[in-house]
Amino acid sequence: MSSVESTESTESTGSTGAIFIVVSMVVIIVKISVLYYFCGKRIFPSVSPEPQFMTLTMDKFLTDMEREKPIRFTDQQLRIATDNYSNLLGSGGFGAVYKGIFSNGTIVAVKVLLYGSSDKRIEEQFKAEVSTIGRTHHFNLVRLYGFCFERNLRALIYEYMVNGSLDRYLFHQNKTLGFEKLHEIAVGTARGIAYLHEECQQRIIHYDIKPGNILLDRNFNPKVADFGLAKLCNRENTHITMSGGRGTPGYAAPELWMSFPITHKCDVYSFGILLFEIIGRRRNFDVNLPESQEWFPILVWKKVDTGQLEELTIACGIDEKDKEITERMVKVALFCVQYRPESRPIMSVVVKMLEGSLEIPDPVNPFQHLMDGIFTAHPVPTSQSYTNTSTSSGSCVMVTDSSIVCTTPIMRRNEIELASSNG
């Protein structure tokens, strides 16, 4: 082999080696870069997030903010949403309710309050609703989206309840709701009231529990609504003194019409009256029936007292399969409407009773004062100190020096435990 051929061979080998080295270095650099990129992202996350990530975060933040407190709307925004207030849902002494749709598709109920320069009552109602339902969050409470407070407009914007109020399904001839669903509505309503009384930072007393204020969503889940009479109550101040009656006659507790301090037990009474109307699927006092008719709750008590509850369930059109639920609801209703507020259970106990997770003792006659024709003013305690006194049928709870309330062991144990844990 000539010297020229040897030189060409050497140069060719050198070129191949150089190319191999360059390619190897490039591969190594690429691997190091990729490794650094992925490891570096984990160790040193980017300070500036991608625009899409930032948008999602902001959307979540704004959604969370909307859930925390109601939004303030303008009259112009509401006029657009309601098509200039053209779709009237209903009206009353407070004003009118209109259906509205926001640009994102959310359907709302806009409650426009009647307002005049001298009408302090409407302003009080506005403040009551915003200050109470505006700070609550519960599946069984109607949601307040926001409000409008302008020179000539006071409005409240609520979530829209497609199935309207409970009274539409109780008092009309076309009773489409089965008793099992009515029981679910009763339990859900009780949960909502229990939340107001026992789980809010400040106890909220509704004062106007009735079928017309229980709204039903698409799946007939109940939502407690209309907080125009509601009042906040610090837990250490368990009693409220007010002048004048409050609530709806027929549903309001007796103490609301007397000059005595008021407790959250007035809502328990109203719920009991509501339960009677759910059981009978009729008004407790029907103006279309003869004048000699009995008040339905008293009729129920007489049937219970004489062992004729089954006869009552048949008269109310309740099926045999719902007999056990009916008996439970009847007992709960009778406990809730006890004349003395201290004898009524708290709402979390009511929920357990309705659900069947708590044994319900036989109630005492809550209408003895009516049957005897005696209307006694019951003392309402300013503080509660519980003292056990043994009896053959249960126990007595010392509420104050001037009043002793007899209860069964089950009622006493759960009432006191829950009251102390939530007070």
TrEMBL record:
<dbReference type="InterPro" id="IPR045874">
    <property type="entry name" value="LRK10/LRL21-25-like"/>
</dbReference>
<dbReference type="InterPro" id="IPR008271">
    <property type="entry name" value="Ser/Thr_kinase_AS"/>
</dbReference>
<keyword id="KW-1133">Transmembrane helix</keyword>
<dbReference type="InterPro" id="IPR011009">
    <property type="entry name" value="Kinase-like_dom_sf"/>
</dbReference>
<keyword id="KW-0732">Signal</keyword>
<dbReference type="InterPro" id="IPR001245">
    <property type="entry name" value="Ser-Thr/Tyr_kinase_cat_dom"/>
</dbReference>
<feature type="binding site">
    <location>
        <position position="111"/>
    </location>
    <ligand>
        <name>ATP</name>
    </ligand>
</feature>
<keyword id="KW-0723">Serine/threonine-protein kinase</keyword>
<keyword id="KW-0547">Nucleotide-binding</keyword>
<dbReference type="GO" id="GO:0005524">
    <property type="term" value="F:ATP binding"/>
</dbReference>
<feature type="transmembrane region" description="Helical">
    <location>
        <begin position="18"/>
        <end position="39"/>
    </location>
</feature>
<keyword id="KW-0418">Kinase</keyword>
<keyword id="KW-0067">ATP-binding</keyword>
<keyword id="KW-0325">Glycoprotein</keyword>
<feature type="domain" description="Protein kinase">
    <location>
        <begin position="83"/>
        <end position="368"/>
    </location>
</feature>
<dbReference type="GO" id="GO:0016020">
    <property type="term" value="C:membrane"/>
</dbReference>
<dbReference type="InterPro" id="IPR017441">
    <property type="entry name" value="Protein_kinase_ATP_BS"/>
</dbReference>
<keyword id="KW-0812">Transmembrane</keyword>
<keyword id="KW-0808">Transferase</keyword>
<protein>
    <recommendedName>
        <fullName>Protein kinase domain-containing protein</fullName>
    </recommendedName>
</protein>
<dbReference type="GO" id="GO:0004674">
    <property type="term" value="F:protein serine/threonine kinase activity"/>
</dbReference>
<keyword id="KW-0472">Membrane</keyword>
<comment type="similarity">
    <text>Belongs to the protein kinase superfamily.</text>
</comment>
<dbReference type="InterPro" id="IPR000719">
    <property type="entry name" value="Prot_kinase_dom"/>
</dbReference>
<dbReference type="Pfam" id="PF07714">
    <property type="entry name" value="PK_Tyr_Ser-Thr"/>
</dbReference>
